[in-house]
Design brief:
The protein is of the alpha/beta class. It contains 12 helices and 10 strands. It binds 5'-O-[(R)-(carboxyoxy)(hydroxy)phosphoryl]adenosine and zinc ion.
Length: 360
């Protein structure tokens, strides 16, 4: 059976809706970004995010249905991101999806945002040259975004079939890209700017130490790398354009190498032959190039989703929801939003992350 699902996403700073089939066909994919709204503050302001989701969600959902040529009652299910994310932002999507489901009688399924990212490469879109191996389970998936960085063993599309092999003990990789850009006065979000400037820089100019590189562990730590960059920047107040590009290139080389080295180590230790990289940071050109090179050198299959599937979108949420729906899973008006993922965390948070959580 093929199911068509309306996906709704509002976990952070994108309001998105999409209509996707359980086979991965994308009938529509609408994303309203709040980047301009948060840019003056150098990061996402939760209250502003919630208010903007409230304004945008209705029109974005209507647009997604219109582009797919479907009425709400013509979809088989409504999938909504219910975790993890900013609680006020999540609530907008969840309450709206509950209302739509109640009014239309269309079944509701809640989706974990991280599972959406991990399944995004199944969406049928423009393939990425050199990274378009037909995907099947099991695989080793690196999810690197603004809020999360972890490697998973993915044996199937449902939560109990996905196991964390190692995660960051503190900052997420995307958060580190954003902080480095902020330190260099490059604006927000930082990932795309660092990526662009790194192309003109010398990656060997500053020997940043790769965090946790020597350990056998599959865990990451990015707060120390951020501190290394901060200290270098503070001790070099006179910076010309070339120096800024060199900092970007040196930082990016260090961060992307550690991400790919650990993904390969994870695949080796689990005996997996297929690699996936996904999440906003998977849009990074050097990360993609390193993944392609490493997979080729080791004879491993690699699937990297196109850019539109890497950064936050509702197509991946609709797809993940469709898999729950065809497996017979359903939610109802009791569905709750949560800031925590449904995937159990195996990595302990380091002191930096614990302090930050306590300060909230
Ligand atoms: O997956 P995503 O859109 O949202 C979250 O779920 O967090 O990821 C956003 C993150 C931001 O930190 C952004 O700076 C980073 O992805 N990012 C990149 C690139 N494009 C986006 N990082 C490195 N290189 C890029 N090209
Ligand atoms: Zn995301």
């Amino acid at each position: 059976m093929v199911a068509w699902v309306l996906g709704v996403e509002s976990s952070c700073d994108e309001t998105a809706a999409a209509v996707v089939s359980s086979d991965g066909d994308v009938a529509s994919d609408v994303v309203h970004s709040q980047v301009k709204l948060h840019a003056p503050y150098g990061g996402v302001v939760p209250e502003l995010a919630s208010r903007d989701h409230l304004r945008a969600a209705g029109p974005v959902i209507r647009e997604a249905l219109a582009r797919a040529g479907k009425d709400l009652r013509e979809v088989d299910a409504i999938a909504v991101t219910c975790r993890p994310g900013l609680i006020g932002a999540l609530l907008v999507g969840v309450q709206l999806a509950k209302g739509l489901s109640f009014a239309s009688g269309v079944p509701l399924v809640g989706v974990d945002h991280l599972i959406g990212h991990l399944l995004a490469p199944f969406l049928r879109r423009e393939p990425v040259p050199g990274a378009d191996a037909p995907l099947s389970f099991p695989y080793a998936g690196l999810l690197a975004s603004g809020g999360h960085t972890a490697i998973y063993r993915v044996d199937g599309p449902l939560a109990p079939q996905i196991r964390e092999l190692g995660a960051t003990r503190d900052d997420a990789a995307g958060e580190c890209f954003d902080k480095v850009a902020k330190l260099l006065g490059l604006g927000y979000p930082g990932g795309p700017v660092v990526d662009r400037l790194a192309k003109q820089g010398d990656p060997t100019r500053i020997p940043f130490v790769r965090p946790m590189a020597q350990r056998k562990s599959l865990e990451f730590s990015f707060s120390g790398l951020k501190t290394q960059v901060a200290e270098w920047v503070a001790s070099h107040p006179e910076r010309d354009e070339q120096t800024v590009a060199d900092v970007c290139a040196s930082f990016q080389a260090t961060a992307t190498r550690v991400l790919i080295d650990k993904l390969i180590a994870a695949a080796d230790s689990e005996g997996l032959h297929h690699l996936v990289i996904t999440g906003g940071v998977a849009a990074n050109r050097e990360l993609r190039a390193r993944a392609i090179e490493a997979a080729k050198a080791r004879g491993l299959a690699l699937t990297v989703p196109p850019l539109a599937s890497c950064t936050d979108n509702a197509a991946m949420i609709a797809y993940a929801g469709a898999q729950r729906f065809i497996a017979g899973e359903r939610d109802d008006g009791r569905l709750l939003a949560s800031s925590q993922s449904v995937l159990p965390r195996r990595t302990h948070r380091g002191p930096a992350a614990t302090r930050r959580l306590e300060a909230r």
